[in-house]
Structure formats: structure tokens, C-alpha cells
Amino acid sequence: MPRANQRGFTIVELTVSLVLVLLLVLGMAGVLIQSAQMNRARQMAVEIQSTARNCMSQVTQTLRTAGWDPLEVGFSPVVLDADPSDSVSYIEVFADLDSDGSTDGSGEQVLIRHVQDRIEWRRSSDTSLPFETLGVYVSNDSDGDGTIEPMFSPDSVTDPSRVVVTITVESPAPDPRSGEFLRYTLSNEVVLRRVL
Question: Is residue 157 a part of any domain in this protein?
């Protein structure tokens, strides 16, 4: 015999409860998705900043040795890109690091170049050796207009004493929140060694 005062949930109460739970779950899912997108954007920003800083550190350290000539043999510290408007930007650095009067030793002739989306170098005068990649996703397009800015800007094309190095790294994928690529640009002026 069923009791008359026993009562269950009505279909309306169940429907309202399910809708409220569903809204709560959707709200939490939205927060989680937004949080994941923010974390991904932060991770991409850290990665591109790290790439730019590492590349800049290695390039400027190499440029600071340019012209080291302890025996006063007399050689040009750098060879500049003959056509800075083409798709490959480069600079060749010479330094007599082992003090033997020549720049033929390992690491004494370094060719640094920006080609396509990467920075590469070859630390030898031996052109049969492959280039090593210093960093990828290097666009050198700081404003995103599709125009590649030069990586090396000397104060003089005939006898440079200073070279401004500019590196722009772009995220490999768009920011999930804005749909825009993230960019990070570093610029550093390096004074070339003229005398000991």
C-alpha cells in the first residue's frame, strides 16, 4: 500500500535541475578552455622570447670578437651582405682567436645568415660544412606587414664600426585568443673592434 504523503520529483523539477547542472558544466568548460588558451599564449610568448634572446646572445658574442687581431696583421673585421634587399641577410665575421696571424682556424670565420624562417651559422671557412641552425620561426617582420627587415644594419657599408642586429621571432601558430601571430623583436648595437 503506497503512502499518500510520499512524493518524488516531477518531470519539471528534473528538467530544471538538469538544465542548471548543464549550464554549470558549460560555464566551467568555458573557463577551462579560456585558461588553456591563455596558458598556450603565454607558453608561445616565452618560447619566442627565449629563441630571440638566445639567437641575439650568440650573434652579438660573435660580432664582439670581430676584428680581434693580436698580431696586427690587418684584416677586415666583417664582410657585409652585398645585396641586403634579397631574401638572405648575412654577415661574415673574422677574428684571430688563436693568435696565429690568420683567421683560418676553427671559429675564426663565422658566417651568420637569416634565411627563410631561421638563423643559421657556419663557424668555418670550409664552405663544404653545413650550416647549424641557431633559431627557427625568425621572421624579421616586426610589424607583420610581410616585409622582411634586414637582420644586420651597419653604420657604414665600406668601413663599419657599429652594426645593429635586429631579430624578430614569430610564434609558430596564431594566438588562440586573438587569432594573430605573436611577435617579439630584439635589437642590439654592437661596436666592432677596431684596435686592441
Answer: yes
Does the residue 23 lie in any domain? no
Number of domains present in the structure of the chain:
1
Kindly state whether residue 80 falls inside one of the protein's structural domains. yes
What is the dihedral sign for C-alpha 63, 64, 70, 72?
positive
- pTM comes to 0.81
Q: How far apart are CA 81 and CA 131, in angstroms?
A: 17
Residue 113: give the domain boundaries: 37-191
pLDDT in tens for each of the 196 residues of the chain?
556 566 777 888 889 999 999 999 999 998 998 898 899 999 999 999 999 999 999 999 999 999 888 888 888 899 999 887 788 899 999 999 898 988 888 889 999 999 999 999 999 888 899 999 999 999 999 998 988 999 999 999 888 999 999 999 999 999 988 999 999 999 999 998 754 4
Cell of 156: 657604414
CA distance 84 to 98: 31
Separation CA 54–CA 58 (nearest Å)? 6
The bridge status of strand 109-115 relative to strand 118-122 is antiparallel
Whose cell is 652594426? That residue is 163
DSSP 138: B
Count the Cβ atoms, other than its own, within 10 Å of residue 67.
20
